[in-house]
């Protein structure tokens, strides 16, 4: 056993402090086969987000943005939760984790059994009309390869947050409240480059929470707000963490 094993340190924190909250990003779903946005395999390597992922781009050319969204939907389509999603759901059942704030729109936290999920960037489950705001379940209106339209004849947009759009009010409020009141913020698989999601760890830290970061890479958070960095893949780390926390009496001392 490594001295000062960060997973054990994190387990000790999670057991000792009440009310942990997780903040997740695309990295947690990589092991489910969904590539992240940034990095060599990322979706933004193929699609320039300025051209394909802003609300301005959508209003100018919805069919073009729907092509990127179709690819995103098909990447998410067959994916199933991996042990990292399952681990967070298990921590919730164990009474250790209070909620998950996710930037992902893939629905895998809910599929894994997490109940308290704040979808910070929305989801692909529903569509909204850009003119009259009428909403529809995605499966009722959208066929892959097409640009869905409303009964009023206007274009439908998925209820995901594109660059330049505000975070849904309730998600923003509840995420900030969770950050201000948690004992530990467990940050998993985000590059922490996109605002305002990247402010959540800062809000938590400022309010007194400990910040644990699970990411094979360092991020802008690592040297500034992170208390414990666990440089590993999410599924392996979460599996180990849950295993340690399941042992009655707590993690054995470090040596
Ligand atoms: N386990 C943990 N972390 C991983 C793993 C893994 N197996 N694989 C990759 N990562 C990390 C990467 O090192 C990277 O830091 O996940 C992070 C993914 O970063 P991004 O692709 O930038 O994803 P994310 O932070 O969720 O992006 C935020 O940007 O464009 C938007 O709206 C999109 O919600 C998204 C937002």
Radius of gyration equals 19 Å
The CATH architecture designation of the largest domain is 3-Layer(aba) Sandwich
Helices and strands, in order, run as HEHHHHHEHEEEHEHEHEEH
The first-level CATH class of the largest domain is given as: Alpha Beta
Mean of residue pLDDT values: 94
Instruction: Report the principal-axis shape.
Output: elongated
Which cofactor or ligand species appear? adenosine-5-diphosphoribose
Structure, briefly:
With 255 residues, the protein is of the alpha/beta class.
Walkthrough of the structure:
- The chain is of the alpha/beta class and 255 residues long.
- It has 2 domains: 159 residues, Rossmann fold (3-Layer(aba) Sandwich); 78 residues, SIR2/SIRT2 'Small Domain' (2-Layer Sandwich), CATH 3.30.1600.10.
- Helices cover 37% and strands 17% of the residues.
- It has 11 helices and 9 strands.
- The strands form 2 sheets. It has a 6-stranded parallel sheet with strand order 3-2-1-7-8-9, sandwiched between helices. The protein has a 3-stranded antiparallel sheet with strand order 5-4-6.
- A hairpin with a 5-residue loop joins strand 4 and strand 5.
- Helix 1 packs across helix 11.
- The chain is elongated.
- Bound molecules: adenosine-5-diphosphoribose (APR).
